[in-house]
Amino acid sequence: MSAASNDLESNLLYARNVASFKITTLPPTPIGTNQSTFCASGGSVYNPLNLDLSILPPPGFGTQEQYPVGDLTGKLQNRSRQEEHTFYIPGASSELSGTYWDVFLPLEGPYSIGHRGLSVQKFNRSQPSNITEDIWTCSFLTFYHPMRDKAPLPMTTAQILFNYPIVGRVLMRQAQDDPSEDTVILFEYLIHADGSALNNSMGHRWAIHEQPPGKDFYNWTGRCLSTGNIYNPYKVNFNEKTPEQTCTGRPGSVCRLGDLWNRLGTLKIAGSVAEAQTFSRMLFIDRNLPLSGLNNIMGKSLVIYDDFGPKARGDRLACSKIGSQFRRKAVARDWYSNGELLSVAGKLEMIQQSEYDVTGLIVELKGLSENSGYHVHMTPVESDLEFPCEDSTLYGHWNPRGVDPKQSPKPAKGSTDQYEMGDLSGKFGTLDDLYQKSSFYNDTLLPLFGYESVIGRSIVIHKKEKNLRWACSTIERGYSPSEAREIRAIASFHHPAGYAYGYIRLTQLISTDGSQSDTIIETNLQYPGKNDRNVSYNHNWQVYVNPVGVDAAVQQVTTRCVAGGYVWNPYYTQLADPLNAELYRQECGPNNPLRCYVGDISARLGPIDIGNRRQVFTDPNLPLEGAESAVGRSIVIFGANFSQDRFACANIEPDHDIVKFINIQKPPRFVVAQFLEDVRHVMGVPKWMLSIDSRKTKTLHSGACVQMIIHFKGPEAHKLEQDFSRLIGSGRLDAPSIYIPGFVNTRRKKTLSYKVCGVRDPNERNVRPGKLAESGQASRSASTIILLLSAILTSIYSIS
Predict the structure, then answer these.
(1) Which pTM value belongs to this model?
(2) Class for domain 657-756, per CATH?
(3) DSSP 553-593
(4) Do strands 469-474 and 336-337 pair parallel, antiparallel, or not at all (unpaired)?
(5) Architecture of the domain whose range is 155-324
(6) Residue 646: which of 658, 636, 656 has the closest Cα?
(7) Region Disordered: which residues (predicted)?
(8) Nearest to 135 by CA among 52, 31, 35
(9) Do residues 246 and 255 make contact, with C-beta atoms less than 8 angstroms apart?
């Protein structure tokens, strides 16, 4: 190892300060962890044989079995004198450099280091009399494909989410299409969540059962009986009263496939989120738990037991289905020009298997022209703008960790954590003097999972001169229609008498097996009125159980949005103590999203602003389809500065997108923006439900006509398309396209002066049908004479 920039000064600083290298028991927590405690979440040095750490030999002075499996410095320092090594401070540093042999570092089996963490420590010399070690940096350990350079090993990943009466998340990972390989089981956290227990509990049995759970996962009596018996596809004989006598986890023992507690150990459940990471987070490795092939466990259930619970409930505490978590793929390929001629083509493609893996970045660009930087920016591209890449709409680089770009090294000279998360040209090099670029990179900080995901944001390519923005593209999900489909929903705040104007858009990917991705949320909210520039901050927002109606626009705050009911809580979170608001605020948060009510978005993602910038969020717990769906309910926005008063609300409805080509005659002084505004006024629709693709607008017939691609969006997209065709065809629309309860626009125009442009050039002179026939006969006669003269001349030349 060496310093990221690899210059002499940095390498000497690294060699002087590095203290030790350790493999940790757990991987660092990638989602919802405060960055100051990110590396600490990996736990202590991996020590499966429980060696006494107080009597270890000094590094390099003992044999390898005398150190913990994860103590790399102790086992390897000064160990490879026969190998060629280049040390920056020979004999006076803890640095490791070169190739080493380690006979106590298993990559498979129950003590495997795979999917754990790697931690680098540095010396803390703040007190010269007491020099200690602090964590310097850390990362995940992942497997790479043996035959493909830089390519991670394809993995099958299963996910189990517990919602009641405990909350938690479990991941199971195995090499793809190889059921004989080890399966890694990672319990990210398990927390009591019904409000009845705040104490830690331990000794919980757990097993894979035959069937997915039904609705009895929250029963007070006979809980989780729908899951059936423990999964036993090989029909192993066992003693029902004492199965632990035949299943011990040691070689030669006989276990049912689903009997996990006897061969791996029992579980711990934390009483609060404060202790979840240190108490309930665990990692197991099992050699007989297939995620693919015959007798795989996908679609079955994981049941956690409680042997000390009420007899009426039974010994089953919680259960949940074993579902799939597929890799995430994002792509930016639909490029928009920022007012100049667009020559760029190609794509930026990102692939990440899970939040514990690196992101593979494929850059394939052609048609570059005097460019330099390219970055991820904060929001998606607005397609109807003439200059869609400007700072006024896409804002700055995506930088959720607040990295100071002035402190970043030169491009391609540092590690990825030293740059802004979205600074791709800083991490991997600029586009200077390139006309095309085709490269592949591994990025440890370009997430496609969790709160910091770049999906739904944008890529901007800059010019070298003045760093001007040249082209941009939205980062969209990449998927095959045979694998998944994207669900889109919108909460449209367009009531003229309402108190907010704009929209909240939601998208989610649903795989063919029903598994769901994170939900991407875009908010774009202003105050009503074209010239209203008021801004307010810190509005809480929640999903309520029912849709709203005319109550969305009443003046009295106490009765506004009352039809929405109450916060959506389909999993009965904190059911045993629902009025304990202090306990709820203490336990619910970004680092424990399943502990929040599903409808309490602001508790997971934070508040929103009105009248300020657009915002993009990623929510891991907001389903748009299935037994519990947010579609058909309402979003309620509360007052500024965390007020509890209901301020504005709108229903969550399906968001369709219909595309239509239209050719219209171009009158004098024609402006596309004015045309759209006139159409929206007559149809009575907001601008986000009727827009154009600014790249595809072009003139026809020598400037006599204009061709546009129009997008009709929202829950009434089909009706909008029909009404638009009727309006353009006849020039009149008697009723608005969108019904707004309790509102009639008496100033609405019913007619439109624009006309459809036909296939013929309107500049051509009109000819009466009779004259047209005569003209046709005359032209045919002239053609006959020309052909006859041509034939005569040909004959003359042939004779001569």
Answers:
(1) 0.90
(2) alpha beta
(3) G-S-GGGTTGGG-SB--TT-TTTTSTT-HHHHHHH-BTTBG
(4) antiparallel
(5) Sandwich (2.60)
(6) 636
(7) 398-419
(8) 35
(9) yes
Residues of the chain with pLDDT > 90, as a percent, come to: 68
Report how far residue 386's alpha carbon sits from residue 309's, in angstroms, rounded to the nearest whole number. Answer: 64
At residue 436's C-alpha, the angle toward residues 431 and 439, to 5°, is: 75
CB-based contacts of 480: which residues, under 8 Å, 6+ apart?
none
* Orientation of helix 717-730 relative to helix 672-683, angle to 10°: 110
Please indicate whether the domains covering 484-654 and 657-756 agree at the CATH topology level: no
> 164, 159, 158, 160: which is closest to 216 by C-alpha?
164
Q: How far apart are CA 766 and CA 323, in angstroms?
A: 68
d(CA 692, CA 278): 53
Residues 6 or more apart in contact with residue 353 via CB below 8 angstroms: 152, 154, 155, 157, 327
Q: What are 77's two structure tokens?
A: 């320092």
The predicted pLDDT at position 761 comes to 60
In the block, tokens 């660092």 appear at 28
**CATH number for the domain formed by residue range(s) 359-477:** 2.60.40.200
d(CA 12, CA 15): 5
Looking up tokens 């065709």 gives 725
- Pairing mode, strands 155-162 and 323-324: antiparallel
Does position 791 have pLDDT exceeding 60, yes or no? Answer: no
CATH fold of the domain at 484-654: Immunoglobulin-like (2.60.40)
Reading the block at residue 532, the tokens are 């209203």
* Six-digit token string for 81: 């004198």
pLDDT in tens, 145-188: 877 777 889 999 999 999 999 999 999 999 999 999 999 999 99
Q: What is the pLDDT of residues 643-654, one digit of tens each?
A: 999 999 999 999
Q: Which DSSP symbol is given to 198?
A: -
The three-state DSSP-derived secondary structure of 633-646 is CEEEEECCCCCCCE
User: Distance between CA 157 and CA 160 in Å, rounded?
Assistant: 10
The domain locations on the chain are 1-141, 155-324, 359-477, 484-654, 657-756
The first and second tokens of residue 516, run together, are: 């769901």
How long a stretch of residues is the chain? Answer: 800
Q: What is the pLDDT of residues 322-336, one digit of tens each?
A: 999 999 999 999 999
The DSSP code sequence of 483-533 is TEEEEEEEEEE--TTSS-EEEEEEEEEEETTS-B-PEEEEEEEE-SSTT--
* Average pLDDT of the residues of the chain: 88
List pLDDT tens digits, range 253-267: 788 999 999 999 999
